[in-house]
Design brief:
- The chain is about 25% helix and about 10% strand.
- By secondary structure, it is of the alpha/beta class.
- It folds into 2 domains: about 140 residues, 3-Layer(aba) Sandwich (Oxidized Rhodanese, domain 1); about 110 residues, Oxidized Rhodanese, domain 1 (3-Layer(aba) Sandwich), CATH 3.40.250.10.
- The strands form 3 sheets. Strands 1-5-4-2-3 form a 5-stranded parallel beta sheet. A 4-stranded parallel beta sheet has the order 7-6-10-11, with helices on both faces. It has a two-stranded antiparallel ribbon with strand order 8-9.
- The mean pLDDT is about 95.
Length: about 280
Amino acid sequence: MEYVVNKEWLVNQLNNEQVKIIDCRFDLGNPDRGEQLYYENHIPGAYYFHLEKQLSSPVSIHGGRHPLPNIEQFKKNLEKVGINRSKIVVAYDNGEGQFASRLWWLLSYVGHEKVFVLNEGFDGWVKANYPVSKEIPKDDFTTYEIELREEMLATYEEVKEVALGFNKVPVLIDSRDKARYLGEIEPIDKIAGHIPRAIHKFWADGLENGVFKSKEEQKKRFADLDPDRPVIVYCGSGVTATPNYIALKQAGFKNVKLYAGSYSDWVSYDENEVEKGMPKDKTS
């Protein structure tokens, strides 16, 4: 199964009514920047989905910094831009991969089978001198039939069983950069470190110049893991773990789950311990 498309394919689909394009550009340091860039110019026909509006729910005590969106509201957002189960959806960001992958994961979670991330994102599109537009497409109402794939989502309780050592079957993967995993720095969350027993696989290692690496290269990244063993991926808030989710599926892993609340949800519970340095009890 393919999870990404290239700009050369997409430029030939701009007049294809079966293809819906979603601009997911976002800047964690400036939450309005992505939407501003969209209004300046975007891939023709693209709609904009904001990470903290369409792709997340409001922050509360638990659930992390980017809680999953309310499913009924997410359904309405899809229907408003003409996405139904028959459409081909292409998500793009600037080329980092994580924001488009967040939409890829959400759409897959609600049962969509034809959703892809655009390799190289908008940066690659512009470098190729492909057309851009300031025109905002009109609403295109349709009906979306939700079919939740619960097997894609790891609950807090599942993660806790792994962290406490009660369930040693799943592999818990921390997708953040290594310094945050080791607890050497923590620029966002209140406690530095990682969830106990998690191993480290930096999400950005799955891409090169905004392009997802090949199936063979992803297999090499995860060569120390059994592809038949369940895997739970997390990051800081459930965004950068999604490219790792895609990479694991590319590598042939059959049972992959996202801990959507991720580390920011874990440390929202005062009783939860965190580890620093390398894990004391590896799950791999």
